[in-house]
Structures are given as structure tokens and as C-alpha cells.
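Troubleshooting log. The previous structure file for this entry was overwritten by mistake, so regenerating from the original sequence record. Sequence copied from the archived sheet and checked twice against the printout by T.R.
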Amino acid sequence: MHIKTFVAATVGLGLVTLSACGSSDAKSSSSSSDSKTVTLVSHDSWAASKSVLADFEKQSGYKVKVLTDGDAGQAVNKAILTKDNPQGDVFFGVDNTLLSRALDNGLFQSYEAKGLDQVGSAYQLDAGKHRVTPIDYGDICVNYDKKYFADHKLALPTSYDDLIKPAYKNLLVTENASTSSPGLGFLLGTAAQYGDDGWAGYWKKLKANGVKVVDGWEQAYNEEFSGSAGGKKAGADRPLVVSYASSPPAEVIYGDPKPSTAPTGVANGTCFRQIEFAGLLSNARNSAGGKALIDFLISKEFQEDMPLNMFVYPVVEGASVPAEFTKYGPAAKDPETMDPAKIAENRDQWVKSWTSLVLK
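Regenerated output below.
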């Protein structure tokens, strides 16, 4: 996987969601071939080691088919539109910023996965109904280009407040909150930090300080951010970007040549916690296979395979992470968070207000 793919993985955070909409076991095998194939629908950043998926196929007797469909927001919306005749059995790709949309639309049926007792309670946002199973988490944070700040003898930013100071004018690029998962996460982080009455005023100051907005993470990170491998090649001139806490280790792991230390760092006071889920689709044709696959997604084998494939952190207690993560991209100690119910109540209006405030 090259740095571009890695970044896409970092950005997309994949999850699976489970929701209650009635069991569909009766439909589980419309043909003999259907009953032996389980189909996973996800966003473009889905990735897993072939050997690990082969282990699942050998253990379970099911063949895995994977369908990817755009970024997380696009994939969730398409899954909702096709829920009566879904493309697959399990959906992986909905996070806490979009969770209510999937649940309110009855996208998933209830299933309590085997091994769920090993998943931290902080990640179980639908614990009472088990419509979604937590799979991974990551932190959306501002990343900085170490060389730029050293060359300009400028202090590294550490907080949201720093980003609106004159010294950081025209340095930040972020993603559109209406089209990008990290863009939305960054907006929610500012809403959590400054409150219902303060976030808009903060964004007015950020706009006045020259923030640049692009459609998605790939463009922001690989074309506009001077600290990434892609950005260096593109002649990018923005040394601050909204990305992930796990982006610096990816720059090391996939660097060519491999650097001895991460060329980028994370402003730890700008992080928002993103949790991804997997779910059994309401009208899944192979619900038995879907349940087996969800169980596998929270197995230690899959959880320990995730970090270097999707650049996210495991939710299962005791699952190990690569040394590069611990050294270059530890999870934020005190990230901003927000109750999914509050996100559900405010998300659409906040995005609408943000759009008129920042893009017009």
C-alpha cells in the first residue's frame, strides 16, 4: 500500500452498523451459492490482509465478497437508498457522526456479536439495541509539517485557539463538512469545544485567518498539505491539515525512503474521537454469514490486522498495535466527543450554517 492509499485509509475510518428492523433469516439463502457467500459493503478505505480474510473463510465456510462504494457518507446514503434490496449482508463504514442517520432509517437489524464483552463500553453507542457493533476508532486532528515550523521558527500549534492567531494565517487546509467525514468531525470538534453559541463565531475567525476548504481528505492531505509525501511532490504550501492522529506513523511506514522519524505531528488539543461500526443489514440475504463475519471483525486476529491496513485503533481490549503507532501516532489522551443524540439533533443544521458561513 503506498502513501496515497494509506492516507485514504486513515481518512475514511470504516465501521459497521447494526440496527433493528426485523430478522431476515427466512431470506438467508435464495440460492445455494448465496448461502456460502457473505457480502461486505463498505467505503473505499476498507482494507484487510488477504491471509486474515482467508482464515475467516476457512474457519466459517463462507466466501467473502467485498463491495466498496465511495467515501463513508456516500456509502451510508447508498445503503439507505437500497435497504429494501441491499447490495450485501454486512455494512462497514458508518461512524458516530453519521450513526443516527443510519439507525433512524432502519438500516440494520439487531445482533449481539460474540466477543462483544471484550469491547470497551465507551465504544458501544447502541449497547441497548445492538444494531451496531463497534469495530475501530481514530482521532480526527490537525496535523502539522514539522519542517515548515522549524524553518520559520514558528511555535507548533496545540489547540483550536492557536489556529485563529495571526501567526497561523493562511496555513490551514480542512475538508468540506458537508462532503467529508474528517471535515464533519473537525466541525463537531469545534462545536464540542466552543458550544452551541460559540462555534460559529470561532469559524468566522478561522475564515478571516485564511482557512482553505477543499472537498475531501485525499485532496487536502495529498495535494494541499506540505508535510505529506504527496503534498511535497505537488508543491503544496499549507503546513496544517485536518487529518488523523494515525497519519504521522503512516508517513513513516510508507515513506520511500523510510524516514527515521515522522515528518509530521499532531496538535493534540484539536482532536475529535471517531468510532466506526459494523452492522447486519436489515434485509440481508445471508444473515447467518453476516453474523459470523461481524463476530470475526471483533476477533483479536482481525483487530490486530486493522491498524496497518486502515490506520485505525482496535476496540477490543488487549489487542496490540504496531510499535510505530505507539511511537508516532498515539491516540489522543483527551479528545473532544459528542453524544450521538446531540449530533443527530444538530448535525444537519450545523452543516447548513457552516456552509453559508464558510463557503459563501
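The longest strand covers residues 133-145. Archived copy saved in two places this time.
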